[in-house]
Amino acid sequence: MGFVSVLSFAHQLLSQRVHFGDKAIDATLGNGNDVLLLAKLTGNRGRVYGFDIQQQALDQSWMRLRNEIPDASSFVQLHLCTHASMEAVIPAADQGTIAAVAFNLGYLPGAEQDTITQEASTISALEASLRMLRKGGITTIVLYTGHKGGFEEAQAVESWAMQLSAADYQVLRYQFANRAKHAPYLLAVEKR
Ligand code: SAM
Predict the structure, then answer these.
(1) Is 62 in contact with 36 (CB distance < 8 Å)?
(2) CA angle 106, 81, 83 (to 5 degrees)
(3) Is this structure's pTM higher than 0.70?
(4) What is the structure's pLDDT at 114?
C-alpha cells in the first residue's frame, strides 16, 4: 500500500485533532486545499481563520470553499495579511482555544515564485501559532527546500522546533529518507 504522502499525512493529523465545532487556522492559504479540509472538519458550528499575502490565494480559496460548502462565509474568515499578524486579527476570546494551525510553506503553485514565505515572518507566525493552540492542539508545517531560500527557511524552522521544551511540546518529523534531496517533509508540534 505504501506510506501516505507528506501532504496526506498532514491532513491525517489535522483530521485527528480538529472536530465539529472546533476552531482552526490555515496560515498559508495558497490554492485552498488545507482551508477546505479545516472548514469541513470544524463545520459551521466552528470557526476557521485563513491568511495569505496574495489576493489570488484568497480568491482561489473562496472559490474552493463556496463550491463545496455553500455557507462557508458564515464561519470562515480569510485575511489578506501576513500570518505573523494572526494575534492582531484573531479575537482574544479565540486565542488559546485553537485545535490546529496548518502551515504549508514556500510559494503559491501556479503563480510567480517570487512571493514566498520568509524565515523571519514564518518563525514569528510559528511562535504565535503555539500561543493560539489549546492543550492537545497541533501546528503542522510542510517544508520545501527546492526553491530559492527554501533550504535556509527549513533550517530556521528546524532549529526553532528543536529548541522547544519537551515538557511543553512534542515535535514529530515525517519524511521519506530515500527520496530526492528536495522532497517536501513535515514537522508537527503538539502542545502538551
Ligand atoms: N496551503 C496551501 C494549499 O492548500 O494550497 C498551499 C500554500 S502555498 C505552498 C504557500 C502560500 O504562502 C502562498 O500562497 C503564499 O502567498 C503564502 N505566503 C507567503 N508568505 C506569507 C505570509 N507572510 N503570510 C501568509 N501567507 C504567506
Answers:
(1) no
(2) 55
(3) yes
(4) 82
